[in-house]
């Protein structure tokens, strides 16, 4: 049995973790910490868990656990590690951006299993990938692994409102989001850094631009990324390349028809679709931003770290149409 704790337990990603871990057959939740809700029942915040758990938000005791998930905001994990003396054998999965760069000074491994499963299995510290990054990288990695990337990569990706986190802002408020779509951080999104590092890990000589246009959608959860680049393979060759790359990865499927976001919402799946247009290869990639883009992938990483089947506890179902 894996004893786990959650730091920053009130947000969206912590809520998703709890929904998975409460029913995970190999996990016991020792504590869920939240500074803003200390002493309150978890179901007061994550209301859909009413009747599923009697846990309350409690003080963290790191001697009780084998692993902690850190679900605090970006920039807070570094402060947390500076302020707390943790047991040497404690494993960490961090869902923030703080330690995703490879040159981090704490020895975190980038936690995309479809890229780094062997390293994850040996790791004590995992930096969980960003949601856009996960979706886009899964669409590109087979090309990079076979050094088939030749020219610039173009990406347009739309994400649901939960990608902005639980705290309301002027651009996540319902009256702004409803019946609205908007581009933001064009060519400058923070996930570009980890996308670039992942591509260079597989194809070190790649020097072309990755042109990324992120879009805020007017739906709650999910990401659809549309990617295209010059490619001299036939469609059949490209499909075979992708099928071979993902043949031993449980959560990625290649579809023969254009996927919908609803196919993956409330699952840890990534569905990919390929089309050829002249010399351009188009890849559509869809994931749930809160699961394969965050908490589901964190549990997948935990399973790999502890030698479990990577699908353990992740038999989640689509919400339907």
From TrEMBL:
Predominant place of localization: cytoplasm
Domain Semialdehyde dehydrogenase NAD-binding as annotated: residue spans: 3-123
UniProt EC number: 1.2.1.38
Claim: Secreted is one of the keywords in the record: no
Localization terms from the record: Cytoplasm
HAMAP family attached to this UniProt entry: ArgC_type1 (MF_00150)
The protein's name in its UniProt record: N-acetyl-gamma-glutamyl-phosphate reductase
